[in-house]
Sequence to fold (434 residues):
Amino acid sequence: MVANGGIDIYNGSDIASLMTVEKPMALVNDNYLKLKAGYLFPEIGRRVAKFAAENPGAKIIRMGIGDVTEPLPAACREAMHIAVDEMGQRETFRGYGPEQGFDFLRNAIATNDFQSRGANVAADEIFVSDGSKCDTGNILDIFGPNNVVAVTDPVYPVYVDTNVMAGRTGESDESGRYAGLVYLPVTEANNFTPDLPSGKVDLLYLCYPNNPTGTVATRDTLKKFVDYARANDTIIFFDAAYEAYITDPSIPHSIYEIEGSRDVAIEFRSFSKTAGFTGTRCAFTVVPKGLKGKTATGESVELHGLWNRRHSTKFNGVSYVVQRGAEAVYSPAGREQVRALIEFYLQNAAILCQGLRDAGQTVYGGTNAPYVWLKTPGGMTSWQFFDHLLSKANVVGTPGSGFGASGEGYFRLSAFNSRANVEEAVSRIKQLLK
Ligand code: MLT
Fold:
């Protein structure tokens, strides 16, 4: 018998008594060990917290994570108050709702967000959820491990990290790029419009208006990607979380405004940035009926059914109260209040862009999106500029390289803030960069 940290083996024989078996421990998902140190925003939070602790007098202005600052629209709050009162009465109390969302919200979304723009989306193709971040990660559950995945670079890090977690990549190189992923650079050199993948990819993420660059995709660009997807049996994951910020009437709000897209695209939408729901949580995903993938043996399978199965097994729906709040976004008062919110943040973006240009900087985005994408001054790397701005102006932004190798040399500022903070940040940045 031995007792040296392994499992004791005792069967009476001398040889067996020398054997040690390692304690059977639960195996981890090794893919997580490939992930770079931390998710970008917690890493920024860590650095800012350290700076704040060392400089307690610093009045830090946070323009890093794109989190809304303005209160919920009155129409949403009023609808939620009524719903809370309903929950307090036996006659109107509700327990579990439909996992896919209540019909009142799915109908409002289908009519107002899609059919009113000529996009053919039915209410039962809409799956209400607690967030687009969750949905863009969770959607991978219904796809096999060997799909080839393409992302733009820079990109919202969730698309990359969730594929790493799912085992669709190898290790990352020193620039942060993972083996096995196809990267489509979006930089000044191609006017922030990605080229089509040079070969076939199976899954392709597009985010427009774009996080982080704040740029948009024209109808022609989206058509080019839809045509590519149709020719290559590619599924496009279209993240339209920022569509409410589109001011240019020629820019599509939904990929379903593009002919042929229902056969190739899943779209993600959110109330977070539209109506200030980042803390309230409500979003939705559209999976058109008829959109198909293939089994390993080549049979076609409807993705709508698979997603419905996944969603209703692992999710119990967004709360009734919150869905009533989201429905109010489409009421006449809600529309007006949401429009005012969006205009407020877009005005912040305009102030940021103008201030940075006055300081001689090169700036992109900010007119159809709440993000301003700035070239780092003086050839600084993205993280060098992050530290410079934090230590000298006490302003926090997001280093472009945190969104991908092609984001190196760029920096993102979020327009989600109070007017006073935006004006103060602009004045400090101008002072620093003059
Ligand atoms: C961002 O700053 O990129 C967003 O807040 C991230 C998100 O919406 O999850």
